[in-house]
Amino acid sequence: MLHNNTAPFQDLSAHSTKQHQGRVTVFIDAAHVFYAASTLGIEIDYSKLIAQLVPQGQLLRAYFYTGVDPNNAKQQGFLLWMRRNGYRVITKEITTKETSDTAYRSIDFCVEITTDMITQAAFSDTVVLVSGDGRFAHLLSHFAHSSTRTELVSLQSITSEKLLSEADKTTDFAGFKGAIAKRHITYKRTRFSAA
To answer: Could you tell me which residue, 102 or 176, shows the higher pLDDT?
Structure first.
């Protein structure tokens, strides 16, 4: 389950120190995460990811926003796992016949993420946004005069500069990719010979 993760976190911000996050709500833009994972050449372990995002606090909720292809059984199984492991999965069906990466990235969750983040901030000390979309810059600036701390986690090579400048803390996926990558076990075949 997602609650009370205390795994070590590699803080990649040059000027920040580890700070207790208090009550934390996480908002994950799946299209950005999938693209970041593809760029970094890893498959993400979502249990490890949440432990990295909330190392010094109490996780209240983790939202996961993604486009879905209802005919993709593997994806449906993945989303079922996410729900069973504490994520609140918010979906929109892909309406194009093409289910490419471009189709997934074109689905817009700006309204849903903005509404959920403003609502949940009333109960959170820290909100963590996992996205690189510059349209969220105004949303993060909204929290500048509030008591809610904002953290941005993204692949910074594809993240809007304006978005990076609005967060209280920024972390680059590239700096902790080893900590969130799935470990694939390979079994070697052993040849036995009769004595």
So the answer is: 176
H helix and E strand count, the chain: 8, 6
E strands along 69-147, which residues? Answer: 87-93, 126-130
pTM score above 0.70:
yes
Q: What are the contacts of 106-109 at 24+ separation with CB within 8 A?
A: 107/31, 107/66, 107/67, 109/29, 109/65
Q: What is the pLDDT of residues 96-147, one digit of tens each?
A: 555 555 555 568 899 999 999 999 999 999 999 999 999 999 999 999 889 9
Half-sphere exposure of 120 (CA within 13 A, CB side): 23
> What is the per-residue pLDDT across 58-82, written as a single tens digit (0 to 9) for each?
999 999 999 999 889 999 999 999 9
CA angle 40, 3, 151 (to 5 degrees): 50
With contact defined as beta carbons under 8 Å apart, do 112 and 131 qualify?
no
**Which residues are CB-neighbours of 31 under 8 A, at least 6 positions away?**
66, 67, 104, 105, 107
